[in-house]
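Mods, move this if it's the wrong board.
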Amino acid sequence: MAKKLKLNLVKTRESYSSRRLAETLNVHIRTVQEWKSQGLKPISNTIPLLFMGFEVKEFLQQRQKITKIKLQNNQFYCVKCRKAVFSKGNKIEIIITGKEIGKNNLKEFVIKGFCETCGCKLNRFSHEGKLQELENTFNITSKGELNNEQSKFTKN
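Not the wrong board. Structure tokens:
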């Protein structure tokens, strides 16, 4: 599983050797060498290889942008399938957490479902401002407040 890199540790106006870059981002030196083969440009081809901080940041931000998955309103991200999926039978359960989020203090809720491909549990967070849109899109099996009881939603 890819780890989230702390790009703010890389200074844009500094040059980094492969070893120093690996230590700064807490990755193996082979990872930095792999980045070079994938397109990270060194300052020159002299040894030791030096990389400018702004080049490193730009390269890694592009990689993160490529792997990001955009979801439509009626989709979930399945951790097992590693892709955007729909809920099985278009059925969902909405659980209101009671937390207020955003500037308008909208109530947060959790949308739960099951992956139609592998049957894995799916979760997605939203707010009450999108409730009408969800009611038009999904077949809602139940709504409820978050409490200590087990969820009534069962796998069909």
